Amino acid sequence: MTKEELLKELRRCILCGGCKIECPTYLFGARESLGPRGRLRILYRILTEELRPSQAASDRIFSCLLCGACSGQCSVGVDMERVLVEGRRLLTDYDDRRRIYRRVLPFMLRRRGFSSSVVRLSRFFLFPLLRRKGLEVLELPPGTEQFSRGGVYPPPDPMTRKGRVILYGGCAPRFFQPHLIYSLIRVCNISGYEVVIPEGEACCGSPLIALGGLSEAEAMMRKNMKVFERFEHDSIVTLCPTCALTLRERYRSIWGKGLPVQDSVEFLRDVIKPEGNIGVKGYYHDPCHARYGLGVYKEPRDLLRRLSIEVVGEPGDCCGLPLMLSGPDWGIREGLFKKKRAEVDSSGAGMIITACPGCMYQLSGLFGDDRVYHLIEMVEEAILGAGEEEK
Ligand code: SF4
Ligand code: SF4
Question: Whose CA is nearest to atom 7 of ligand 2?
Answer without folding.
Answer: 13
